[in-house]
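dumping the sequnces here before i forget
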Amino acid sequence: MKGYGFLAGRYLKQQRRRSILTVLGILMSVALISALGTMGQALKDNVLLQQIDENGSFHFGYSKPAPDLYRKLEDSALIDKVGAVRTGAGTPLGPNDTVFVQEVNEDALEIMPIHLASGSLPGSPDEVAAEEWIVPRLPGKPKLGDEVTLTAPNGKPHAYRLVGILRNDRSSQISRSAKAVTLMADADPARSEDASGHVQLFATFKKGVDISSRLAEFAKLGDPFITNGRVLALMGESQDNGLNRTLNVIFGTLVGLVVLSTIAVIYNAFHISVLERIRQFGLLRTIGATPRQIRNLVLREATMLALIGIPLGLAIGWGGLWLTLWLMIQGGFRILQMDDFRLTFHWWIMGLSVGVSIASIYLAAWLPARKASRVSPVEATKGAGSIVRESYRRLRIPSLLGLLGVEGRMAANNIRRNRTKFRITTFSIVISVMLFIVFHYFTQQAFDMTVDRTENDKIAFTIAQTIVKVRSEDGKTPADRVSDIVSPGTMDRIAKLPGVDAAYGRYEMPSSTAIVPESVVNPDFSRKMKFHFTEVNFQGTQAQQISAVLQLYDEARLAKAEQWLESGTADPAELAAEDGVLIVQTVKPYNPDSKKRELLPLTRYKVGDRLTLQFGESASEPSTARQVKIAGILSQSPFDSAYQPDALYVIGTKSTMAKLLQAVPAEKRPMGTALMGVDVALKDGADAQPVREVLEQIAADIPGGQLINVVDRQKEERQFAVQMKIFVYGFLAIIGLIGSLNIVNTVQTNLLLRRREFGLLQAVGMTMGQIRKMATAEGVWFGVIGGFWGLLLGTALSWFLFSQLSRVQGIPFDFPWSGAAIASAYALGVGLLSVQGPLRRMAKANLIEELREDA
Amino acid sequence: MNVIETENLSKSYGKGSTKVDALKDVTLSIGQGEFVAVVGASGSGKSTLLHMLGGLDRPTSGRVMIDGENLYELKEKERAVFRRRKIGFIFQSYNLIPVLSVEENIRLPLLLDHREPDKAYVNDLIRTLGLDERRKHLPSELSGGQQQRVAIGRALAYRPAIVLADEPTGNLDTANGREVLELLKLAVRRFHQTVIVITHDMNIASEADRVLRLQDGRLIADTRGGMRP
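..and the predicted 3d for all of it:
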């Protein structure tokens, strides 16, 4: 035993409860900071990977390169990979489908979006890999390893061996032109003797090259010059670095808030523990401890807590993330992104978390340590555990607490008696409330922006039919010739398949315009967007002609529309009964001034208003116009893209639409209200395979029918969303915990420090009930004050985050009501509950005892 | 030889109308090995004088010389080290560190100096104080008399030249008070230390070599050879 340093450990051990609380605070903060950093980075990595997945990892390319360009790029010291893709003639398969073989070089296999589903990538010019959906339609229905003859890009037939199956791409399924790749035979695509077909070049820079500054010199080498804009933007290499900066600002703000609350927790804990030991520090001073020694003693305590809390926090932050991921994988989530989340372990994030935590711990402990070092030795000679002498400030404005009688008045005085303590307690609550509101707001916004925008995201399969012969040569094919793609019974059967969430019908509706009276059009729209609708005079009313997107919704679709209903009803029976429609009048046009898409109402219809739809060429012609009643207003479109740029979205039932279609000349409504396709949405975590088999069967029975399969992509996207939700709510829970820890710590010690005082109050006749009332009033009042400021600052900070977010995408600012409500209730609750523990303990102990002189 | 000398020592608290003169122009000198009692009514400035002599608080004016060194010309840190090595304090409320054992409390001043304590001396001290059985006990496990003996042990651990005691027997019953007094006297004899005791107890005062009486911050009597009640 040498030196006085061991005292620090003894003190921590003695105040075990507070030490544990403080370590917990540090631990959770470190966990949160490191997890937040990891998640932020993972999110960024993920978005980048997703973009690379969709667009390939190339940095730039040339769609019409000069013959010598390939050599030039190959020889450039800055360039890593040069991918060449030769496209050309396709092989028609059946009446509708075509497969295009692309010849690519080895670099292109790496940097272009070519994704193997099974088998292997082509290793020679005689091997081919084709998209999954086209494989069964290839001539001879080849299996992996079988020979298949396809048209090469040069237009000549070539016998390939099928070695791989590529992942399906939605656009290729819709356009019915499948992709197949083979290896390019010639080393230099431009010099090939057999140069027929069209060659494109794509290249990546070497690692370490400053891409944004070098891009310009490569742009001069060929025209048109292509850049992989979104990938470059995410790499932080594009001129427009907005997304990166926004992500940094947002995560920076969140980490900053967590750091602030860490500081508050630690400052609180140390401040109180120093206040409690003033006399002991005084004593140490009388026996000759220097101020520096005492300061070091306190800082040493901080060091010990940091040494325990930080490594544990890192372990728990990382372990928590890992565990969550693991649990999700166990729970049947198996997606591409998951693996990436698992892999992103960044030392710099861990290092930075440690650095930030250490800095905030010392920052927080510094002031209490200084206070301890400045304790006058005379303090030691004062009576033991004296009723703390404080500079009492009389309240100028009588507090509301005065209404609670004498206990309330005392509580009001107690709250104000020590300005520092008042400030630090309020500060803790404010930070916690603020953190909660901001985090809650931010995550909600982030969701709205990135995930689950419409029900379309859940659609995994689409059964569609290519209508080739709808119109006969004379253009007289009657509309009623087109029949439903499947029977209602089949629809029902699909909807009831295990794992299927819903089966939605797809219908084709003719285009239409809405004749909107002048007074109903939102004037802001034209003013902001510098866009004017055609003025018309319709039956004596001055009106504007606005595009209307008509949609026929079956019951399954209407059921989903319910969740976006702002007013009115989406009940299919009611809609059908009164020929009512649902409208989406919120649009998201591009604002040329702010250079971003902005959300605003296009019209100001209310439920019950009548909407005039014009189906004819002439806007003012009454015979082709129809009126419908607006039965409900939706905040966004439930399917397809959530908002139109400048059109009304009008949803009606089959019967309503059938009536409307009578206004349309027969040749313009060839499909009528016939069922044109089926969209099938799966339940979360459902096994797609059996559903797919049934649907393939159904599709095979339909002439020209095909099954568009996006289950993999859809599953990945959806699970990513669920995953984000789990993380975010995990974060919110931890933040709530840190906050409560802070409040509990402050309020409780505020009371425990005054045990003697409570003893005195009992001695002069205050009952325990009165003391309880007084202390509870104090706790609640702290909650009220802290909640008030937290609300104010939290909203302000939310607004700041909003302004950052809206750089990326125009969104309206929603006041964070839900977060505010939760946070306020939580502040009050914690304030109320935190005083109960110490009060119970005090009620058990004989407080009068406290009055006696003790060591 | 004088260990302590003060010159026009004054201390006042507050300002203006609330100004209180706790000590006014106190000049005195105390020799080595003297056992001095300071008496006076409550608020007469006894404790303030003791604080000034121990370098705990700054005087408003005047100076304090200990072993020829002006205490208040030293820097805060030097004064702390000086206090650690030259002065031992004993308080009415024993003021022990609750998280340290008896032995650790006694050795604390040495530990602050990062010094390995003179084991034989510390053991001797602990035995003399009758705390041999209680070495490993925490203050909360001791009686009042025992706690005060620990405090005395701590004050003597560094073999300081001066021991300052502020009503050391105030919280003790007669028997324990007697014992503490005997220990202090023993210290004077055995280690040739200077002991200054503030007391209300006329028995203690009567056994002192010298009694200083304070009234309203002024030294009004300085009696040698003890004092009769």
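The interface with chain A takes residues 47, 51, 54, 56-57, 76-77, 80-85, 87-89, 91, 93-100, 104, 107-109, 111-114, 116, 139-140, 147, 154-155, 158, 166, 171 of chain B (CB under 8 Å).
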